[in-house]
Amino acid sequence: MHVSSTFFRMLSPSSAMLALFLLPNLSFGQLPELSSPTTLTGTPTSARFFGGATADNGASYSNSFAFEAPIDIDLEIKVESSHVNTLGNIYIIILWEGNYFLRQENGSYKLWDFSLENFSAAFSDKTLQSVELINIVDDVAFGPAGVFNTTLDFIVAYDTLAVANEFFFNGTPLSVNIEAKIQEEPPAKQSLQLFTENISLQIIQNNCIACHIIGGPAGGTALVYQPAATQNALNTNYNLLANYINGGGGSTLLSKAQGVGHGGGMRLSPTSTNFQNFKEFVEVLLTE
Q: For a designed S-S bond to 262, which of 51, 96, 150, 256 qualifies (C-beta 3.0 to 4.6 A apart)?
């Protein structure tokens, strides 16, 4: 699996930020509670776990965010009362596309093989407070870092010397979905709009098609149009004209419409609205 190095550099805090992550008076507002507090051995626990992702500094929390949305992700542990002021460790685990990553003490992340012997702490040998607050990212957009159309699951765990060989963690992870980048529809061509509004019916269907049609007097020329009743006639006729004009036929087209070298004679008066619209269509199409 390709892992975005930009993504993990983005998750790695500076040393100054690390000093702030576990300050007892740090406040993230009311984070949503994560269900199913769990222990490694299955023993019931009164520890509680909270976590949330927000794009508005904690005014609201969500599990899904747009490609370019800068978000904060925070976790919180309320340790068991009997564990307060005991020596312990805190662990941060990210599950991403079937792989587990452990946060290291320097803020970097390493791939974890799910073994206890390689289970390393993000914050080791610390005196556990009643509430431990941990910031994962602050005002970071995941999509531009290469993480999108995917879900990341966050788990926070702790252990304590008060209970040997035991870990306490949120059994239900904090899931954060980063959406795919929305591909904006390209703006409609101005020439197509002009053709639709001023050319297709007024000139092609009401004038040219009398001859420029299969079986018509001009049925053997480069411009043979589809009747309006034909499926997708408008786009077919637009593309036919566009190719002809882009191929260098714009001047010829306007001349023939005025009767110059045209077997059908003058079809559009140079002073008519239809001719002016036709001329504008040709000019606009050539600029696109």
A: 256
Look at residues 207, 214, 167 and name the one whose alpha carbon lies nearest to residue 47: 167
Using alpha carbons, select from 23, 134, 29 the residue that is nearest to residue 77.
134
In the structure encoding, which two tokens stand for residue 195, read together? 């053709």
Beta-strand ranges (E) seen in 142-278 are 150-160, 163-170, 174-178
Using alpha carbons only, give the angle 66, 69, 73 rounded to the nearest 5 degrees. Answer: 105
Per-residue pLDDT tens, the chain, 288 aa: give them.
334 454 555 555 443 333 333 443 344 568 999 999 999 999 999 999 999 999 999 999 999 999 999 999 999 999 999 999 999 999 999 999 999 999 999 989 999 999 989 999 999 999 999 999 999 999 999 999 999 999 999 999 999 999 999 999 999 999 999 999 988 777 778 999 999 999 999 999 999 999 999 999 999 999 999 999 999 999 999 999 999 999 999 999 999 999 999 999 999 999 999 999 999 999 999 999
- DSSP characters over 74-94: EEEEE--GGGTTSEEEEEEEE
Whose CA is closest to 6, among 138, 112, 103, 144?
144
How many distinct helices (H) and strands (E) make up the chain? 6, 13
Domain boundaries, the chain: 5-178, 190-287
